[in-house]
């Protein structure tokens, strides 16, 4: 048994007081959740370190070897283990690995002590089955056989197999249902007192039996860090392939949002995008439905797609899309990559069946997994630990992550799909991080953009007109030219070079938007680096001659034309019945519907009407671009989980030290309200402190009702407020006198209490 010498700390709080400022700062940096808000003193810090959520979070970050070192202390028969004994208990681990693990555990206050290591009670409760062993028989209220080795040796093979399986990593097993025949091996073991029932369905193997079956390895096999085979690739090749994937992703997202700009996708009542809309988008983009779902998720994660419309029932491009499409290609890609990394969604689940057997839709709330960002980052950071041009195969990476965070092993199933997603956007190529991917991990969007600089082609401001009425864009287009081409032509194929086709429908669409034939001729001449084919000029002129022969105005509304025969044709056409037209006069038809509705019906019937203003001029109605307000779904980390900067850690340590100093200055006797003592007593002590220039011990309640004790150097007292230097916060503060609950000169023995 290890006895605690009189000069050694007896509690966690006492041990924390012996730590240096640098060691306390390291503790706060390793466990930032206990640093916000700053603890008032060491006792408050020790209390926060014992909060179950904080302990679980700290344990989740430990690797398998460190947890095995912790198991040695947790399984010790008495509280307190000599540090030298820990090394002897783990002979399969190198001594430097054990020493580093002890340092890691004490830095996080998961163990405390210097020569003798202790585990806080909350850590013992958090690790329910240390080393995969069950509780002691006494705790399980099981009476083991007097000669346990003989009893185990006499078991049948099936019964022994059950015990050996439970003696592995998890000592809890499911109890089979009782059948009509002989009892199962587990039930016979239960009857023999070699298993303990913990509820109606489960049993637990007592620790003593587990240790017996493990023999010379009571802690199980040594958990040595795996050394997987390293994948090597040429850095230049990796970056070129990543740039190709990035260009493809940016182009596809632009095409997707352009399609949704023209015809938004509906929002399902349960959330997400309907399969019908996903099929429509897949057809428009000439991709598979699965790819369409992935693109929707990527656009949403980047904040470029969201719910909007008059009734917030449509998926629309956001206002951020207009800014995004004007940015350089590297910045556009960085936005997509950063959105994916921070997303709390798992696009790989699109199309899979939920517990009710229903397929999960893209953009559905069912895809949300709040652990997704941390899993993505941990996987990429593991790859970032290798030099540029080197990485790991997916299976090897998963094995490494299981060793690094074994308590999170059940959350690593999506890692292969996440790696495939990273490859699709150019963060990863064949298990190796690209330069853009490394920049993304280090500096976010800015770093990702810098890493992709020089790898993506510059946007071009021209096309190449072909005799077959196609326009070839030899690279990504500048936003202005892309906008114009979306009106006057249709995308026929996309990739490194995008092919647009000019057709009768596209020319008519441009004329409907207010273009004239002259405008179109000038645009094609200006935009094309090759001569404009004669066939394209003829097409524009032919469509322009037919356009506007019909005029639609708003009287409720009217349709007029100098070609009376054409009006008769329109009036007798079955396809225009929905326009509800009737003849008002020679050359004039009227309708009870609005002008926009009549225009839509006539165009759908194959005519080429033009809108007309009340003055008789051709009315152009450029299509409005609907937008959603938009937001970035990847929310910033909560303050409690945000990493602590060195300056923040140092400031918090100063506050803790100041709080301890206030407690040390506080009289040993408890401070009590003394009947008959008024605020005058408080003012007298404060005035004396200002006159003599000595600090005071101050009890204070803030506006939120939180009480604290602090050492303050008073400076002035006026108007019911005390000005002074707060030693805990290291800043000048103003204190309302009526909120001061007690005050004492640091050199005095007893405080004067104010009744506030």
UniProtKB/TrEMBL annotation:
<feature type="domain" description="WYL">
    <location>
        <begin position="682"/>
        <end position="744"/>
    </location>
</feature>
<dbReference type="Pfam" id="PF13625">
    <property type="entry name" value="Helicase_C_3"/>
</dbReference>
<dbReference type="InterPro" id="IPR026881">
    <property type="entry name" value="WYL_dom"/>
</dbReference>
<feature type="domain" description="Helicase XPB/Ssl2 N-terminal">
    <location>
        <begin position="463"/>
        <end position="585"/>
    </location>
</feature>
<dbReference type="InterPro" id="IPR032830">
    <property type="entry name" value="XPB/Ssl2_N"/>
</dbReference>
<dbReference type="Pfam" id="PF13280">
    <property type="entry name" value="WYL"/>
</dbReference>
<feature type="region of interest" description="Disordered">
    <location>
        <begin position="612"/>
        <end position="638"/>
    </location>
</feature>
<protein>
    <submittedName>
        <fullName>WYL domain-containing protein</fullName>
    </submittedName>
</protein>
């Amino acid at each position: 048994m290890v006895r605690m010498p009189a000069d050694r700390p007896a509690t966690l709080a006492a041990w924390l007081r012996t730590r240096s400022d640098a060691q306390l700062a390291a503790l706060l940096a390793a466990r930032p959740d206990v640093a916000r808000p700053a603890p008032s003193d060491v006792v408050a810090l020790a209390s926060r370190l014992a909060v179950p959520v904080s302990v679980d979070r700290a344990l989740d970050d430990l690797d398998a070897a460190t947890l095995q070192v912790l198991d040695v202390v947790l399984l010790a028969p008495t509280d307190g283990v000599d540090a030298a004994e820990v090394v002897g208990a783990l002979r399969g681990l190198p001594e430097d690995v054990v020493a580093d693990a002890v340092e890691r555990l004490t830095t996080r206050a998961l163990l405390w002590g210097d020569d003798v290591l202790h585990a806080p009670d909350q850590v013992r409760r958090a690790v329910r089955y240390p080393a995969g062993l069950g509780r002691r028989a006494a705790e399980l209220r099981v009476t083991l056989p007097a000669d346990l080795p003989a009893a185990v040796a006499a078991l049948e093979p099936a019964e022994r197999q059950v015990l050996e399986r439970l003696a592995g990593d998890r000592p809890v097993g499911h109890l089979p249902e009782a059948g009509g025949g002989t009892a199962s091996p587990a039930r016979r073991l239960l009857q023999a007192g070699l298993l303990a029932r913990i509820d109606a369905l489960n049993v637990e193997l007592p620790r003593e039996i587990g240790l017996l079956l493990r023999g010379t390895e009571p802690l199980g096999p040594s958990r040595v860090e795996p050394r997987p085979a390293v994948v090597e690739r040429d850095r230049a090749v990796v970056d070129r392939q990543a740039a190709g994937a990035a260009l493809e992703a940016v182009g596809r997202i632009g095409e997707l949002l352009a399609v949704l700009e023209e015809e938004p996708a509906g929002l399902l009542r349960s959330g997400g995008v309907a399969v019908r809309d996903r099929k429509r988008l897949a057809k428009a983009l000439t991709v598979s439905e699965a790819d369409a779902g992935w693109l929707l998720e990527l656009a949403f994660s980047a904040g470029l797609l969201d719910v909007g419309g008059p009734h917030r029932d449509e998926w629309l491009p956001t206002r951020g899309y207009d800014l995004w499409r004007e940015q350089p290609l590297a910045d556009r890609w960085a936005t997509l990559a950063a959105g994916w990394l921070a997303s709390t969604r798992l696009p790989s689940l699109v199309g899979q069946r939920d517990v009710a057997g229903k397929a999960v839709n893209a953009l559905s709330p069912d895809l949300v997994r709040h652990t997704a960002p941390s899993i993505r980052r941990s996987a990429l950071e593991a790859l970032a630990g290798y030099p540029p041009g080197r990485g790991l195969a997916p299976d090897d990476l998963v094995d490494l992550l299981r060793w690094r965070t074994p308590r999170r092993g059940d959350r690593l199933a999506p890692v292969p799909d996440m790696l495939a997603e990273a490859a699709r956007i150019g963060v990863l190529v064949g298990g190796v991080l690209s330069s853009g991917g490394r920049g993304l991990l280090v500096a976010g969007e800015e770093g990702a953009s810098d890493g992709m600089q020089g790898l993506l082609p510059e946007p071009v401001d021209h096309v190449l007109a072909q005799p077959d009425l196609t326009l070839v864009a030899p690279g990504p287009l500048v936003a202005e030219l892309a906008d114009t081409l979306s009106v006057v032509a249709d995308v026929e194929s996309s990739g490194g070079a995008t092919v647009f086709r000019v057709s009768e429908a596209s020319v008519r669409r441009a004329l409907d938007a207010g273009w004239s034939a002259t405008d179109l001729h000038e645009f094609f001449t200006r935009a094309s680096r090759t001569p404009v084919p004669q066939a394209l000029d003829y097409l524009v002129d032919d469509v322009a001659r037919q356009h506007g022969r019909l005029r639609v105005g708003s009287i409720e509304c009217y349709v007029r034309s100098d070609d009376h025969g054409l009006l008769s044709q329109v009036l007798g056409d079955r396809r225009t019945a929905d326009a509800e037209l009737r003849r008002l006069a020679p050359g004039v038809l009227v309708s009870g519907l609005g002008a926009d509705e009549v225009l839509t019906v006539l165009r759908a019937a194959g005519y080429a009407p033009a809108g007309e203003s009340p003055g008789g001029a051709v009315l152009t109605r450029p299509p409005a671009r609907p937008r959603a307000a938009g937001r970035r779904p990847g929310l910033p980390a909560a303050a409690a989980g945000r990493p602590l900067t060195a300056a923040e850690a140092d400031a918090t340590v100063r506050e803790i030290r100041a709080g301890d100093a206030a407690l040390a200055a506080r009289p040993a006797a408890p401070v009590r309200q003394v009947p008959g003592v008024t605020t005058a007593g408080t003012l007298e002590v404060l005035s004396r402190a200002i006159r003599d220039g000595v600090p005071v011990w101050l009890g204070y309640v803030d506006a939120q009702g939180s009480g604290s004790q602090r050492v303050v150097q008073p400076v002035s007292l006026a108007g019911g407020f005390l000005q002074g230097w707060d030693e805990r916060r290291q800043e000048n503060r103003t204190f309302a006198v009526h909120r001061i609950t007690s005050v004492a000169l640091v050199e005095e023995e007893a405080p004067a209490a104010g009744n506030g």
